[in-house]
Amino acid sequence: MRNYLALFHVVILPVIIYFIYKETIFYSFLSIALLFLSVFISFIEWLVLKKIRHHESFLRPFKDKFIILGLLLIFVIKKDFPSAIFTIFVLRDIIVGSIRIRATRDDIVIRGKLYGKLITFFQFFIVFGLLIKNFLINSQLTEWVALLNFNIIIFTIIALIIAIISIGHYSSSYTSKLRKRRKEGKLVRNEKMIILANRRSGSYNNPYRRHLLKLFIKRRKAKLYYLPNQKEMYSGISKVIKKFKHVIIAGGDGSFESALNCTAFKNKSLGFFPLGAGNSYYSYFYKGNRFEYLRSRFSFREIPLDTLEITLDKNRRETTFMSIGIDAEVVKEMKNIRIHSFKDYFMAATKVIFGPRKSYEITIIVDGNRHYWQNCFNLIISKVPFIGYGLRSVLGKVRPDDEYALGLGNVNTHSAFFNKGLRLWAMVLTQLGLNKAPLVPLRGKEFLISSKMEFPVQAGGDFLAYTKNLKVKVARKQQVLII
């Protein structure tokens, strides 16, 4: 039922537009009544569904903006509403969205939901005012139009003021939190560093990336060691790194993940230099002007970072990010490719998108709290990397060593036909830091996942296996180097 209601809010827009253009008393009244019905149903939905958020339709998050901006655009076309003000409303959403994306990438959480709700509230009054104005003109009750125009102007001014204030708030919050974040962690002044380079990584053959590596080595006065071309690339590494406290892994996400699972590094401070194709860790270790950080000698900060332990069919592995579902299917498609490139990721993603439908019936228990998802198409559990920033912006600031992992389920209440398109929409929402359907955020120390049918699992960019049962928990702390 709730899915049909969500669809109703979207479908009524062209109907209201049709009624507006009929320009009769009857149809003008119907346009007002239909919009009022939509608002009333939204209010009832909010009262009933606010405690079961994860059962929302993915259409619900943007239906209000869809209706408001759609109707305001019609009134702009009819020259009943200033195009400049409509443009400011649209630009405000674009600017705030851009700041949110930047903040997410820089691991900064900005709270400002009230602004969006207030702007939407007053914009609804503006639209209602314009619809009532149409009704009065069609009814030839023009003596009330002047008073109504005055109220529309007042609501428009208030909405504009809130829009401008919200832009200022987001900008100042982002700037101040960025300055504060740069002071986190223990400053590393005297580096004694070795760089372990994996020549099998996807970007090692890129001349510019090798040039950056040479500059990085020179600026840090570090020792370079090439890892052997063998399956166990860290075999015998204890002797190589024995005299060094700070170790930089120059490779891809898989190279760093392998280091996490090697006991030789557990008492070291690990850093990262991006030589892979994906490099999710890159955006975590270098926050801000990342290439500039590789070219110049900025000081590292040392922080403790929780690692996650995955138990899969009695096998254990440490990681900082993993997923099941569509993302894991993409990684599976690249399982037999020795050196990954962006082209490989793109081709694998295309194959999965145009392949069979992906839907999983999942039961997940988080610290004893049970969740059942009938149509889950993706689930991420993470502590950091780039993949974790969206989770942190949705769930709020989480310390890297607070012993909690973050989870983000993608749950669709509609047909599985929409799942793959919704995966892209979910990525947009996390980049904007918006906690909206189909997202279901989770936070806990232990995750127990089970399903009647097998689901794919990937960790750190490596495909692991298909399974029906999975356990993820916070395992230990690893010292890492970030800028």
Please characterize this protein's 3D structure.
With 483 residues, this protein is an alpha+beta fold. It has three domains: 2-181, Up-down Bundle (Four Helix Bundle (Hemerythrin (Met), subunit A)); 186-304, Rossmann fold (3-Layer(aba) Sandwich), CATH 3.40.50.10330; 310-476, Tumour Suppressor Smad4 (Sandwich), CATH 2.60.200. Helices cover 48% and strands 24% of the residues. Strands 1, 2, 3, 4, 5, 6, 7, 8, 9, 10, 11, 12, 13 and 14 form a 14-stranded mixed β-sheet that branches. Helix 1 packs parallel to helix 3 (60-77) and helix 4 runs parallel beside helix 6 (145-181). It is elongated, with a radius of gyration of 26 Å. The two termini are 50 Å apart. The model has no long low-confidence stretch (mean pLDDT 86).
Cα Rg: 26 Å
Low-confidence stretches: none
Count the E strands.
14
CATH architecture of the largest domain: Up-down Bundle
Write down the CATH topology of the largest domain. Answer: Four Helix Bundle (Hemerythrin (Met), subunit A)
Q: Give the N-to-C terminal Cα separation.
A: 50 Å
Report the portion of residues in β strands.
15-25%
Question: Helix segment count?
Answer: 15
As for the number of domains, it is: 3
Overall 3D geometry?
elongated
Give the SSE order as H and E letters: HHHHHHEEHEHEHEHHEEEHHEEHEHEEE
Rounded mean pLDDT is: 86
CATH class of the largest domain: Mainly Alpha
Can you give the helix content as a percent range? 40-55%
What does the main sheet amount to? 14 strands, mixed
Helix/strand-derived class?
A: alpha+beta
